[in-house]
Amino acid sequence: MNNTLTALLGTELPLIQAPMAGAQGAALAIAVSNAGGLGSLPGAMLTPEALRTELTTLSGGTQRPWNVNFFCHTSPVPDAAQEALWREALAPLYAEAGLDMSAVPAGAGRVPFSHAVADVIEPFRPPVVSFHFGLPAPDLLARVKSWGSVVLSSATTVDEARWLVAHGADAVIAQGLEAGGHRGHFLSHDLSAQMGSLALLPQIVAAVKVPVIAAGGIADAAGVAAAMALGAAGVQVGTAYLCCPEASTSALHRSALQSDVARHTALTNVFTGRPARGIVNRAMRELGPLSLAAPAFPLATAAMAPLRAHFEAQGCGDFSPLWAGQNTSGCRALPAAQVTGALAQGFA
Amino acid sequence: MNNTLTALLGTELPLIQAPMAGAQGAALAIAVSNAGGLGSLPGAMLTPEALRTELTTLSGGTQRPWNVNFFCHTSPVPDAAQEALWREALAPLYAEAGLDMSAVPAGAGRVPFSHAVADVIEPFRPPVVSFHFGLPAPDLLARVKSWGSVVLSSATTVDEARWLVAHGADAVIAQGLEAGGHRGHFLSHDLSAQMGSLALLPQIVAAVKVPVIAAGGIADAAGVAAAMALGAAGVQVGTAYLCCPEASTSALHRSALQSDVARHTALTNVFTGRPARGIVNRAMRELGPLSLAAPAFPLATAAMAPLRAHFEAQGCGDFSPLWAGQNTSGCRALPAAQVTGALAQGFA
Description:
The structure is a homodimer. With about 350 residues, chain A is α/β, with parallel strands linked by helices.
């Protein structure tokens, strides 16, 4: 299968394994790249040291192209009143769990892509760098492109697709509402503007001249074929890789993905402060799924972490982000190469 | 194109024109049926007399199969407190328009399918009857089936698809979140359970043994091909027919559909009390899009009607339901036969 996307990425298949922070590292990316797709390393939650280690493993584990992904959000200004509101919402749960709220550190987690992060990745000259929540500032983006990295980013609306192309994206990922994990919207935060893949994809294809990659709801070869019929140059698939042995998905998460509860996902901001799609659990039911009390991304994470740890220690995923797309029917405990091969049948 | 759906419906094409109450009558249905698809007459908003007239026109206008559609909601118990809340929400708009709230009649509009309605349609022995919001009670459904009518209904979740088949539907319409007009959900009113077509369709196909019809987001031959790749036995298309000369879509609605504002639709209950997808306008922005003040379906309609009429008289669609799906790219002022022919290319 040769097309504009394989030409751009240098891959055998126009198939990208979606970066899934918290559920995978270099191992999954290596397996997918070696199987002919584009494996992706999620960089957003890694410390500089961990990022360097993972990139060393990844670049040493495959001779083929790979991708590293970062978030491009604006770091929030901490808001004491908002944080107090959030802690008040969580207080009954802390009491139930016997946890001490005063021990929770303020702030936390994911930092946006920066020159400091670029310093870490520069020696590796990533073949592909993908971004979520827009693109980095022009000087930073120019630096990434100066290494020869191909640059991708996600669009959730036609306007975002046009913006990304105007600001230098080499290809656009059309992220349909079905997709698991964080929504990539960055121009408007009105969730009603988010579209299903069947509507979004052809409208983005019609609006931009760069290759468009379909993401959201694709779980098998039929989904791949459908996306290609709609004019996609390729696909990005995440959820279907979550149960592969090469992923680091927790046992709780794997179990939820392969059960009937996975059929009900929702967009929630209670885990990070930003809307992301996950399997509905107690945290989403009792606190959201969309909470006005949650601090700005990624500040909501800090006070949720002790609850998550407490319940996970009891084998309970009620306060864990169980990220998943709306189509978990492709989740199987099979090697990533096999999942990739099955998806590739959709290009035939 | 012969398959399980054309065999069931007796049509040349596995293509259904979606019934669109308020935007079309027999003329559009006749044009689509004569072009080889299944034309649909929306019956939900018609008086018995108007229904009889339309059915006479429809059955006299084509020798080919046609469909008539009804709603199966439970009639709401009027709630004075809720109605007062709604009128309070609308009061500033009435004041702006110089309208008199006390002149608004209580109750209104759409009645669910009943034996009285069945009395009207029985002489016409409709080849196909489709329902929205579930199915009628068993005795009423048995009566419809006794005439030989094929029965269809919409599912918005896998559970609803299974329910419809268990209760007698001959085929299931998988209504993706992209679809315009009223959502067909009837088992759960939790909108987070609603899925995009790319995720919903293959999961329903895997769950039931009857033919599955894809609806939502399909605007052209590529969309048809995508739906068929996902295992659909056929498609139902609405939005792409709204600008046909045979439709009765208002000039305001046509103009909105063919402009950039059509790219932002949302689910709203402010026009009828039940979530439906329309182009975002002032009523949706200021009252909703989802309002807790709106009375149960279809009671919200009564107090909105004078506002709608007032603004429409000024050439303004700010308080009109501008129903549309998330993909209006197929809306062209072309004869329905031509739209049908273009969509049919997707079966090739």
